[in-house]
Amino acid sequence: MKIVSAEFVKSAFERSHWPTDGRAEIAFLGRSNVGKSSLLNSLLQRRALARTSNTPGRTQSINLFLVNESFYFVDLPGYGYAKVSKSMKEDWGKMAGDYLADREELALCIQLVDSRHKPSKLDLQLHEWLVFNQKNHIVVATKSDKLSSNDLRKQLRLIEKEMAGSKVISYSSQTGKGRDLVWAEIARSLS
């Protein structure tokens, strides 16, 4: 897909902030520090559209980006970051849960997992929820450039086993490897 335009629209802190224009939405989900912002920037071929940070848990709202003036990329708060208050974690979880459960415009959920590690308990819970609720989704294994080809193959087999029944795509935000495959899934979900 050719990216003609991509712009940050707003941060949504509550349901009333969600767009009402009926455009399709592609949601990005994953634990804190899995590389959501890097993936968004890589897919859109922009350096700093989505803010990256070395501090996990930085995204505390639902961030919306309008792509080609026709659909949204939706960056949901990361889960599993230990150094935030319990009430803040609950607020993020409720906001993301409400969005995922109720959003009619949601065309595709892209769940990110770190290719270097076995999926966490929270990764598996989210995956199970997506499958149970029949949400159109794929799993993207990020940071694949950090592993040797042999180790990456082993990790992908492990992720595919743990997240059975879901399409798993390895991705490197550094090299762009996997970009065309992810865009093909996005295009399919938008058609």
Please provide a written account of the structure:
With 191 residues, the protein is α/β, with parallel strands linked by helices. It has a single domain (6-190), classed as Rossmann fold. 34% of the residues lie in helices and 23% in strands. It has a 7-stranded mixed beta sheet, with helices on both faces. Strand 3 and strand 4 (71-75) form a beta hairpin. It starts with 5 loop residues before the first strand and ends with a helix. The relative contact order is 0.17. Residues 53-59 and 81-85 have low confidence and may be disordered.
SSE order and pairing:
Blueprint: E1 6-12, E2 24-30, H1 36-44, E3 62-67, E4 71-75, H2 86-102, E5 106-114, H3 121-132, E6 137-142, H4 149-162, E7 168-170, H5 179-190
Parallel strand pairs: 2-4, 2-5, 5-6, 6-7
Antiparallel strand pairs: 1-3, 3-4
